[in-house]
Amino acid sequence: MAAQSESLGSWPVVRQLRRMRALYAAGVLLWAASSIVTAWSSPGSSPMWTSVLLLAVFTGLLALSSRWLRRMGPVAGGEREDREAAHGATTARHARA
């Protein structure tokens, strides 16, 4: 179980979740606009309800990914500081050479 929590808090996982969250946010904006336009032009139609359904799906995915990132935030932040400190030490070592 400890190995699983370590892999969930790893930096590449957090980066991927942030990318996916951005994609889901774009999907929410797209489907919100589509729902508004479709509801304006043909209220109650099948395409309008399809847009609303996809808006609900992307909103749920965005909420879920945001929740996961919030839960993983402190662990990932500490790892990022460690990586930046290691990178700074490497850069300083190369600057002296």
Q: What would your notes on this structure say?
A:
- The protein is an all-alpha fold.
- Helices cover 92% and strands 0% of the residues.
- It is elongated and about 65 Å long.
- Radius of gyration computed on alpha carbons: 21 Å
Number of E-state strands? 0
Please outline the major beta sheet.
none
Straight-line distance between termini: 43 Å
User: In what range is the share of β-strand residues?
Assistant: under 5%
What helical percentage do the residues reach?
Answer: over 70%
Shape: elongated
| Spans of at least 5 consecutive residues with low confidence | none
Q: What is the residue-averaged pLDDT? A: 79
Order of helices and strands: HHH
Main structural class: mainly alpha
Can you lay out the helices and strands and say which pair or pack?
Elements: H1 2-8, H2 11-41, H3 46-96
Helix pairs in contact: 2-3
What descriptors fit this protein?
single chain, 97 residues, 3 helices
Could you provide a short overview of the structure?
By secondary structure, the chain is mainly α.
